[in-house]
From TrEMBL:
Domain 2Fe-2S ferredoxin-type as annotated: residue spans: 227-314
Protein's name according to its UniProt entry: PDR/VanB family oxidoreductase
PANTHER family, sorted: CARNITINE MONOOXYGENASE REDUCTASE SUBUNIT, NADH OXIDOREDUCTASE HCR
CDD domains: fer2 (cd00207), PDR_like (cd06185)
FAD-binding FR-type domain ranges (all copies): 1-100
């Protein structure tokens, strides 16, 4: 659907916020905290951004975009070309990072740009009168997005942990003590940050059913040991060689076979595909460990094969 950029908000020196509204002034599709939208860019790329505003707001979406020095062409393009009054195309919201109904207390952890879905969660938890703590980690106060809004709206629930203020260092054993099945941990940010939080929680006997995370970037996998394999389409028997350096998606597209794809990093799940035979080499961040162990589906945008042949259904 097409939306209009109503406002561009400088959140930090590296993060811009964008307020999006319907072109005709109507309400936008409903969403819940943790949802994201696909943003379709004029340069042909599609990128996912979490909604940061309160889910009770039906007239607008708010996203935050970090101008990442390691950008693959998405965030840099947005920072350079998005302006007030521009029309852009987005998807309806989807949520792979929801607040579970069983949550009686939420411990929210955000690192850097990971604050966007966490900020929306704070809104929703507050509106539902569910107890929560929000711990926001950054290098300095100036690098915090939505800092003043968080302080004014949730001052009794928000804690900033800043690298340049040693007295604010998080004591994880205190923040995560007394795990209980009614408590849930929600974490979003760089992969290293999330690993730190999750490992700290597991050491304190939080179980995986209580731990929930959202990824912005996929994990870099060393491609040096990649091997060539064959992908076969079960319905037609067509076989194609997937060489080192190319993905299944790329090889199939070269032969005019198209699987819907969005993030291309194994995060969003758009391209999830059924596996009929063979063992995938799972490299995504979308499937759970249990789902990966079944080897009945994989994400061809990033995953490969451990066997010489992978037969898939499309």
């Amino acid at each position: 659907m097409e939306v209009l950029i109503k406002e561009v908000i400088p959140l930090t020196s590296q993060i811009l916020g964008f307020e999006l509204v319907a072109k005709n002034g109507s309400n936008l599709p409903e969403f819940t905290a943790g949802s994201h939208i696909d943003v379709h860019l004029d340069n042909g790329l599609t990128r996912q951004y979490s909604l940061a505003n309160c889910s009770t707001e039906s007239d607008r979406y708010v996203i935050g975009v970090l101008n990442d020095s390691n950008s693959r062409g998405g965030s840099k393009f947005i920072h350079e070309s998005f302006h007030v009054g521009k029309t852009i195309t987005i998807s309806e919201p989807r949520n792979f990072f929801p607040i579970l109904p069983s949550t009686e207390k939420a411990i929210l952890f955000a690192g850097g740009i990971g604050i966007t879905p966490i900020y929306a969660m704070a809104h929703e938890l507050s509106a539902k009168n569910i107890d929560f703590e929000l711990h926001y980690f950054s290098r300095s106060y100036d690098a915090l997005a939505f800092a003043k809004e968080l302080e004014s709206k949730f001052q009794d629930h928000v804690y900033f942990h800043l690298d340049d203020e040693p007295e604010t260092k998080a004591q994880m054993n205190l923040l995560l003590d007394q795990p209980h099945e009614s408590k849930h941990l929600y974490v979003c940010g760089p992969n290293g940050f999330m690993d730190f939080v999750i490992q700290s929680a597991r050491k304190l006997e939080w179980n995986d059913a209580q731990i929930h995370k959202e990824h912005f970037v996929g994990v870099n996998v060393e491609a040096g040991n990649d091997k060539e394999f064959i992908v076969e389409i079960s319905a037609t028997g067509q076989q194609f060689v997937v060489p080192k350096g190319l993905t299944v998606i790329q090889v199939l597209e070269d032969h005019d076979i198209f699987i819907p794809v969005s993030c291309e990093q194994g995060i969003c799940g758009t391209c999830i595909t059924k596996v009929v035979q063979g063992e995938p080499d799972h490299r995504d961040m979308y499937l759970s460990e249990a789902e990966k162990a079944l080897n009945t589906q994989f994400l061809p945008c990033c995953s490969r094969a451990k066997t010489k042949k992978l037969i898939i259904e499309i």
